[in-house]
Amino acid sequence: MPRPALLLAPAAALMLSGCLLNTALDVVTLPVKVASRAVDLATTSQAEADQKRGREVRRREEQIGRLQREHDKLARKCQRGDRDACTQDEKVSAQIAELLPTVPADTKR
Q1: Cβ-count burial of 95 within 10 angstroms (0-12 exposed, 13-18 middle, 19+ buried)?
Q2: Rounded to whole angstroms, what are the CA distances from 90 to 51, 86, 87?
Q3: C-alpha 83, offset from chain centre
Q4: Residues 88-94: what's their mean pLDDT?
Q5: Residue 31 has what pLDDT?
Q6: What is residue 109's three-state secondary structure?
Q7: In whole angstroms, what is the distance from residue 70 CA to residue 84 CA?
Q8: How far apart (Å, rounded) are the C-alpha atoms in residues 88 and 73?
Q9: H-type helices in 3-102, by residue range?
Q10: What is the pTM for the complete model shown?
């Protein structure tokens, strides 16, 4: 064998062994990575739970706002003598009364 090839052979062996070690390490740690990813997907962090609750509260507040505007409109019609508006206003008022307890006190209008 020529002299340069003799010098490169040990270096190549060292590089290949490092590559094999990295592959072996990846194979060994893969199940742990997969399991931890599955746990992350299956559980909800506190921040995610807070965000979800905040979205739900805002959705209810928006719904109450729409119902409140509808109630105001129907109440004006009811005061002018529209019996159908009075009946509808009672239903809308009941919906508002049902939703109000589900919204935290500090965000109620």
Answers
A1: middle
A2: 34, 6, 5
A3: 45
A4: 95
A5: 79
A6: coil
A7: 14
A8: 11
A9: 3-42, 46-79, 83-99
A10: 0.54
